[in-house]
């Protein structure tokens, strides 16, 4: 069975180069700002690359990997790298630079949520086929074995565990991949001890955390400067039009903030119901005005959104008529929530902030909303850290 969760086309080209030199050149050119924690991570990643001894590029294993001992880290030979830290710390960028520096075609990079979605589908199909053919091979072991025939290195972006099914499956997938000598590099916003914190049956997940700490090199990039947002203060974030040019500008900013990665849809649980987020990646979500203000949504929805995302892109904000007082009220509540929690806003609107709602019930109160929209465009506001509601 083909393993479709590992696309043949990687995010970066296979122009292998020395990782340390690659990073230094990007800093020297001004493309990156030097960061001591990033530089330390680059050194560890470079050592990991150097420990991979290339042979050939045939269908068999490309690397002469180390044999696993009971504790790979104890021998100074980790079987993988786990990059973690706050948002915008360069985790994905470093992993992609590492990926491009590995001399192999037997490598894959995939977003963790995409991998898990297709792994679930693969396992379900395998179980169904097994019942039909009286084949009772463990589908998770079969998946890991199938992957190991195709790859020697697997890179996950945004590793996160949010439900019990993923928690139980990923523990066995990782263990099986390591048993099959596949090496893993992953990024995450969470330290291993915080993975699946408070989750159902978390005690069953604890052995996986211990496996990570035993077999994988942990690299903490800190919770300091978010380099994706650092440049936002010097950019235009409010566009007084809803034409194609404004949409292209929003798309460009969205790509900049997310590092150009693949966006995905998400579902947020709000008071027992699901709130659909059509496009999201790396703490940034894109909505159109109608999704947030024309539908039956309220402050609980907005609070759930800002708990999950540090930046919102909102497109197609209209100039609201008097009969759209409910939409205007929802928009005001939304802006208040974003403002109070220092969430960043990038948006396109049919007019300037003070033109969006000038007649109708609540128009006088909307003056404050317009003022806040103005302030949210300033470098002083944009340079502030988002205020986490649950701290």
**Number of helical runs?**
14
The CATH topology of the largest domain: Rossmann fold
Question: How many strands, what sense, and barrel or not for the largest sheet?
Answer: 6 strands, mixed
- Mean pLDDT over the residues: 82
| Radius of gyration, in angstroms, nearest whole number | 23 Å
The helix content is 40-55%
What separation lies between the terminal Cα atoms? 46 Å
- CATH superfamily assignment of the largest domain? P-loop containing nucleotide triphosphate hydrolases
User: How much beta, percentage-wise?
Assistant: 15-25%
Structural class label = alpha/beta
- Helices and strands, in order, run as HHEHEHHEHEHEHEHEEEHHEHEHH
Strand order of the largest sheet: 6-11-10-9-8-7
CATH architecture of the largest domain: 3-Layer(aba) Sandwich
CATH top level label of the largest domain? Alpha Beta
Q: Ranges with pLDDT <50 over ≥5 residues?
A: 1-16, 54-72
Topology, number of strands: 11
Query: How many structural domains does the protein architecture include?
Result: 2
Question: What is the approximate shape?
Answer: globular
